[in-house]
Specification:
By secondary structure, the protein is of the alpha/beta class. The chain has one domain: Protein tyrosine phosphatase superfamily (Protein-Tyrosine Phosphatase, Chain A, Alpha-Beta Complex). The protein is about 50% helix and about 10% strand. It has a five-stranded mixed sheet, sandwiched between helices. α4 crosses α5 and α5 packs antiparallel against α6. The longest helix has 15 residues. It is globular.
Length: about 170
């Protein structure tokens, strides 16, 4: 019985201090993660001084578990800027318009640091972060691939490799 209670308490403690798939891309500039919940927002604000949140989840995802209302209310109440750049889960490679909008957000120092998130913090955010790294920070294709693989925690797919390579040309 005590072992079960200890395991539950440990799980809740880890969850309380763990932001889903959180990654530091460039300290003080760009962070990525999965959907923040509850106290995650406050930890992000106070530990990382988040100035803006960029949500790449599509409108069809806005109703699940009421996360959208929680997020919009939190940013309004805490003076954090909020941007929506919807990218569909099924076609997660950002088009030119989304890339340009994200680059403009990142270029405005008043928006920094930026938290870029989707539902799980892997595919969409990794590819958009790679586009920023290539176009704004002169990453090579190999460096961008390494960035994506670090965020996704798995090797990239051929379509992702081709997309990244096209960004460097």
């Amino acid at each position: 019985m005590y072992i079960i209670l200890l395991a539950v308490a440990l799980f809740l403690l880890v969850r309380h201090f763990h932001i889903k798939n959180f990654n530091v891309i460039e300290p003080g500039v760009l962070y990525t993660c999965g959907q923040p919940r509850g106290m995650d927002y406050t930890r992000l604000l106070y530990k990382y001084n988040i100035g803006s949140i960029v949500n790449v989840r599509s409108a069809s995802e806005h109703r699940e578990r009421h996360w959208h209302n929680e997020e919009v209310t939190w940013v309004r109440d805490n003076g954090v800027k909020y941007f929506e750049l919807p990218i569909e889960k099924s076609n997660y490679l950002p088009d030119g318009q989304i890339q340009e909008q994200f680059l403009a957000i990142m270029a405005d120092k008043a928006n920094l640091p930026v938290l870029l998130h989707d539902s799980n913090g892997r595919k969409r955010v990794s590819i958009l972060a790679a586009a920023w790294a290539i176009k704004a920070n002169n990453y090579s294709a190999d460096e961008a691939v390494e960035l994506v693989e670090g965020i996704k925690e798995q090797p990239i797919l051929e379509t992702e490799q081709n997309f990244i390579t096209s960004l460097t040309q």
